[in-house]
């Protein structure tokens, strides 16, 4: 790891830290937002889901743009857009302005992670790449933690408008930092590398997409919406106990990230088996909880569940490693966008399916069981595209991808068929 690469990565990851801070700012201010904007539970849910939908919908367009414009430009645009969103939120006094604000925050957030991942892919030796990607995600999670106490304290001390203007100021600081420190490779002046279509047609990209979808969806749905009500209403835990379990999930996930990153870089031939292990253990833990006699599992089993769920986020990062090893540098952004967008769409599908099932049955056990078809589809597709990727590599006689993914930063351009 060169000093220059480390400084550039640190700058990008600090911008990502700020993006996660912005992303989580609504969650810790939800009660104040409901009072200020005169919203009920459905209105608050609309704000949160719109932000996520914008984030997911922009992954592929942003991936294409980051290949053309570079990471620095996209990080600058993203930080400025999020800052504008927080300024609008600071002065919002109705649902419409709130929706505009969270749309801007989601749009700027969508530009950040992909830009940092591209920066990592092009700056670090391939064997270290999985660990650096996991560290990027880990540091980003500190942004979520950092948003909690400062925003709550500021809301109580200074009020709504100064708090979110301060958040906007943090985004401006990130913009200045990126502009001053980061240097990005200029886009190619020659014939552009085929982007979105070529990335999608590469089996390794879709292997990464289904990896991200299969591993991320359960923990994401649990953390973003359904974990707390399930633990309190479905399992009868005290709110404080449920909060500790959710904090445990986040904390253990931070510890798992570097470990899985090291293993993915050290044993690239076994990446898909890591994915299948994470998915299989998650399904097994949920099965034990859902089938426990009497309906309410003991606390030790719920602890096991959240510890297993903690591997989901780090496991999903392996999908980005597939995007790297199966695509040339000129379309890393497009491939990463496909992987990230697919994973978030799967997560939102689980969130929606759980909600619909709860409305129909009122039973958390049936509602949580909707995850099984998603896991099954994910595992089938991982196995399918793993086989396709291996056949393609065998035909091309390339020692890359699933076979030697840690030896090469990105698959070099392949001739058209």
Structural summary, described in words:
It is found in: Cell membrane. This is Nitrate/nitrite transporter. By secondary structure, this protein is mainly alpha-helical. Helix 5 runs antiparallel to helix 9.
Shape call? globular
The SS-based structural class is mainly alpha
Strand segment count: 0
N- to C-terminal separation? Answer: 37 Å
* H/E topology pattern: HHHHHHHHHHHHHHHHHHHH
State Rg. Answer: 21 Å
The profile of the biggest β sheet is: none
Number of helices: 20
In terms of DSSP E residues, the strand content is under 5%
Low-confidence stretches: 187-192, 398-417
- Helix content bin: over 70%
- Mean of residue pLDDT values: 84
Keywords: Cell membrane, Membrane, Transmembrane, Transmembrane helix
Organism: Nonomuraea mangrovi
Protein name: Nitrate/nitrite transporter
InterPro entries: MFS, MFS_dom, MFS_Efflux_Transporters, MFS_trans_sf
Task: Provide a quick synopsis of the model.
The protein is mainly alpha-helical. The protein is built from 20 helices and no strands.
Summary keywords:
417 residues; 20 helices
Helices and strands, with pairings:
Elements: H1 3-28, H2 30-37, H3 41-57, H4 59-69, H5 71-91, H6 95-110, H7 112-123, H8 129-157, H9 160-181, H10 196-201, H11 203-234, H12 239-266, H13 271-290, H14 299-309, H15 312-316, H16 318-325, H17 332-361, H18 364-368, H19 371-396, H20 401-404
Keywords: Cell membrane, Membrane, Transmembrane, Transmembrane helix
InterPro entries: MFS (IPR011701), MFS_dom (IPR020846), MFS_Efflux_Transporters (IPR050189), MFS_trans_sf (IPR036259)
Organism: Nonomuraea mangrovi
């Amino acid at each position: 790891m060169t000093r220059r690469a480390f400084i550039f990565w640190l700058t990008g990851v600090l911008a990502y830290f700020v993006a996660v801070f912005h992303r989580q700012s609504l969650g810790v201010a939800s009660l104040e937002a409901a009072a200020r904007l005169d919203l009920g539970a459905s209105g608050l849910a609309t704000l949160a889901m719109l932000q996520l939908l914008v984030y997911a919908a922009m992954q592929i367009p942003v991936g294409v743009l980051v290949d053309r414009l570079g990471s620095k430009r996209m990080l600058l645009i993203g930080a400025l857009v999020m800052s504008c969103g927080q300024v609008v939120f600071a002065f919002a006094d109705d649902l419409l302005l709130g929706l505009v604000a969270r749309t801007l925050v989601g749009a700027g957030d969508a530009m950040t992670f992909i830009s940092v991942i591209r920066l990592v892919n092009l700056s670090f030796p391939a064997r270290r790449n999985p660990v650096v990607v996991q560290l990027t995600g880990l540091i980003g999670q500190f942004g979520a933690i950092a948003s909690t106490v400062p925003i709550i304290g500021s809301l109580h001390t200074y009020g709504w408008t100064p708090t979110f203007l301060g958040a906007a100021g943090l985004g401006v600081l990130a913009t200045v930092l990126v502009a001053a420190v980061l240097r990005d490779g200029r886009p190619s002046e020659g014939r552009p590398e085929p982007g979105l279509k070529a990335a999608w047609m590469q089996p390794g990209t879709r292997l990464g997409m289904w990896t991200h979808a299969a591993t991320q969806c359960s923990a994401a749905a649990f953390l973003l919406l359904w974990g707390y009500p399930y633990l309190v209403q479905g399992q009868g835990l005290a709110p404080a106990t449920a909060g500790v379990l959710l904090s445990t999930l986040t904390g253990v996930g931070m510890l798992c990230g570097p470990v899985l990153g090291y293993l993915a870089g050290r044993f690239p031939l076994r990446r898909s088996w890591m994915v299948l292990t994470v998915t299989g253990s998650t399904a097994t833990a949920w099965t034990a909880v859902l089938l426990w006699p009497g309906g309410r599992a003991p606390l030790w089993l719920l602890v096991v569940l959240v510890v297993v769920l903690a591997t989901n986020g780090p496991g999903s990062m392996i999908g980005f490693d597939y995007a790297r090893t199966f695509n040339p540098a000129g379309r890393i952004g497009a491939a990463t966008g496909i992987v990230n967008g697919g994973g978030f769409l799967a997560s939102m599908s689980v969130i929606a399916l759980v909600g619909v099932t709860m409305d129909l049955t009122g039973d958390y056990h049936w509602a949580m069981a909707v995850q099984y078809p998603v896991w099954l589809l994910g595992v089938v597709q991982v196995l399918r595209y793993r086989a396709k990727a291996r056949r393609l590599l065998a035909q091309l006689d390339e020692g890359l991808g699933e076979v030697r993914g840690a030896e090469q930063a990105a698959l070099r351009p392949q001739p058209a068929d």
